[in-house]
Amino acid sequence: MSRLFVAAPLPRPVRTDLAERLPRAAEPGVRWVPEEQWHVTLRFLGEADEDAAAGALDDLRAPPATVTLGPRVSRLGRDVVCLPADGLDELARAVRAATAHVGEPPGRPFVGHVTLARLRNRGACGITGTPILLRYPVDEIVLVRSTLGPTGATHEPLLTVPLAGG
Length: 166
Known about the structure:
The protein has 166 residues and is of the alpha+beta class. The chain has 3 helices and 10 strands; from the N terminus they run βαββαβββαββββ. It has helices at 12-21, 50-58, 89-98, and strands spanning 2-9, 30-32, 39-48, 65-69, 74-76, 80-86, 113-119, 134-138, 140-149, 152-162. The strands form 2 sheets. Strands 2, 4, 5, 6, 7 and 8 form a 6-stranded antiparallel sheet that branches. The chain has a 4-stranded antiparallel sheet with strand order 3-1-9-10, covered by helices on one side. The two termini are 30 Å apart.
């Protein structure tokens, strides 16, 4: 059993563009997510069997999607600084349906976003409100193992699934 999630990755050029446009200065109480871990979580599976998750995704039939990031860096809940991601609702529903029998029961509804930072004991950080508007295609999803550690999570891609049709 591993801590797993299914994600829509950000292509390298999009990550590079975001990193250049979003200064991430050291700020007390702000833990920045490394840019190589930026993604949109389509479904968090929690503790789940890797083979069962991979098998469920083998049966996924979903068309490619187009994501719009923005229009500005915002907050999600009390402690997440994020960039909203629009255009993945249909893909998230398909992933949820394909993996319904794997891992934790589907919980909260899908809210597309890229987590940029987590806050501790503060209300905002320097990039909150920064305008960003990017569009890019999503033609694959990734099953990811997440391992929690003292400095945050590390992510390991386990399976890449191309999107080819609904």
